[in-house]
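FIELD: query
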Amino acid sequence: MMLLRILFLVLAAALLATILWALGTSSVHDGFAHVTAEPWGLVTFADLYLGFLVAAIVIAATEDRRVLALLLIVGVFMLGNLVTASWLAWRAPRLLARLRARD
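FIELD: result
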């Protein structure tokens, strides 16, 4: 279990490092304009936001505290999978216990 939590934290840290690198090399607006100029860029964004929506549904379904769930969901749509990976690292034991209890 600890290995899984560490994996999620490493992935979140790698994503954060990549975000910081990108912020230092070009503007966010220019990057979005470049990606959305291509059809596959739009597909990539659709896929990304579908993933955000799925993560938001899982968070809403499993978080007992509604205010925390709402803050996390807003965070997912603003900061992306940085929030998702961090939340999974935090909640992995609880989520896996719930999944195993249903078998």
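FIELD: remark
The first helix runs from residue 2 to 25.
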